[in-house]
Here is the input.
Amino acid sequence: MPHHILIAEDSPSQRQLLAKLCRRLPGVEVHEASDGRWALQLAQQITQLDLVITDVNMPGMDGIALVQAMSRLVTLPALMFLSGDVPELLSGCTRAAEELGFSHVGHCAKPVDPNELLAQLRLMLERQTGGTGPEIHITLADIMSGLAHNQFCAYYQPIFDQYSRQAVQLEALARWQHPAHGLLGPQFFIGRLEHDDAIMLLTRRMVQTSLDLLDRQPWTRGLRVSLNLSRSLLHDGDFFDWLLQEMETRRIEPSRIVLEITETLAFNNLGNTLASLLRMRMRGFELSLDDYGTGHTTLEHVRDLPLTELKLDRTLIHDIHRDRRSWSILKATVDMGRQLGLRMVAEGVQNPDDFTYLRKHYPDLLLQGYYLAMPAPASELRQRLRWMADGADSASA
Here is the structure.
C-alpha cells in the first residue's frame, strides 16, 4: 500500500514545491489542500493517512488549529510543521502536538532545505509505519513465539567523542526480524511486553547479546554499552543480581555498562528509584538520564540522582543551529551538567548544520544521531566506529 501524505499550504508555489519533493519518495500518494479546513476534510476522508505537512500560519484555520482538530481522528498521522514567519515557535508547535497525542512530530523552517526535509520525511514515514506496510497486527503470542525462536536481536548506534571522532559508546536497540514483516522496531513490541509484564525476557536477551559482544570482540575494547531499563526492572532486585552474575562470568567491568532510565521513570516513586540507582552506582555501573528536556525535571532532581550521564533529547538538538530559543536552554543545561561533572550526549544529530553548530559551540558533548551513524547489527559495527570527514556515515549516507 502507498504512503498517503497530505500537504496543507496556502502558497501555491510552496505547495507545488512540497508536492514535487514528496513525490521523490518511493511509494507515496500526495494530497494537497490550500487551507486548514480543506485539509481537515481530506484527513477525515483518507482511510490511511501517514503524514501531514502543514504550514503554521495560514488564513482561516491555521496549522495549529488544524492539528488540534486532527487530534480527534481515530488514527493519528505523523506531523511536519513548516514556518517562515515565526521559526522560533516551531519547537512549541512540536511540543503541543506531542501533548495532543501525536507520536511522530517534526518541524522545518522556511525556506526549506530539500535534502534535509526529504531526510526527515523518510525517517518519519519509517517510524510511523515501522518500515513496512501500515497494517501490521502483532499479538503477545506472536511476540513470545518470536522470542522463543530467537528472532529478536540487538542493533547498536554509536555515540561519538568529538575530539577523537571515535565511538566511545554503543546504545543497544531491540529489533525483531519478523519472518513475514521483515525488520520491526520497538513500537511493535515494547509497549505490549511492558503491559503484560514480560519485558524481562527481551531485556535478558539484549543484555546477554551485548555482554557477549564486549566479551568476544577485541575491537570493542574501551567501548561502553548503554542498556535501557524499564519501570519493572528498575526495582527488580533479582534482575540486578542476575546482571551482576552475567558480567562476572564474562569478567566485564560494571563501568562499561550504562543503564539508561527516562525522566518519567526516574521521578516515579522517587524513594525506591533513588535506592535502586544508589545500589547500582555503588557496584560501579554508569547511570544515564535519557530524554532529558522532554519532562519537568529540575536542577534539584538531577542533583539528587547518582547520575554519571545526561542524554539531551532530540527535540532540544533538532534545528539548534537556527532555533534561538533553544540556544539559551542548551547552554544552561550544558553548564549545569559540567558543574555536576556529568558526561553529556546530544541525541538526534540529524543534519550537517546542527552537527556544525555543536562542533563549534559544544566540542565536549558526545554526539549520537543518524547523520553520524545509523543503528546497525553487530556484524556491521566495526566499520562504523569512526565518523567520516564531515560527519556523514559512509555506510548509510
